[in-house]
Write a structure and sequence with these properties.
It comes from Paeniglutamicibacter antarcticus. Helix content is 66%, strand content 0%. The chain contains 3 helices and no strands.
């Protein structure tokens, strides 16, 4: 067992074959095209979230308005219509 530990500690890793060195190592990556694609995804996501928020708010307001309208209709059912010739209340 000790011989394996000594061997593992003494062996240095060999470099990966075909790995770029120097300037070639810096050229690996998404570059400008990757930046533009990521920025476009972020911008589209922001617009989608704003649109979704606006639509949800509109649906909520529509429901509240319908509830208020229904409450007014229920409230108005008990009111008797004015007689012909009556003057409006002031």
């Amino acid at each position: 067992m000790y011989s394996f530990l000594l061997y593992a500690a003494s062996v240095s890793p060999s470099p990966v074959p075909g790995a770029p060195v120097g300037d070639a190592a810096q050229s690996i990556g998404p570059g400008f095209v990757g930046f533009v694609a990521t920025a476009a995804v972020v911008i589209v996501t922001i617009f989608l979230i704003r649109d979704m928020t606006r639509r949800i708010r509109r649906v909520r307001y529509q429901g509240e308005a319908e509830a208020r309208q229904q409450a007014l209709v229920e409230k108005g059912k008990g009111v008797q219509p004015d007689e012909p010739g009556d003057t409006p209340a002031r």
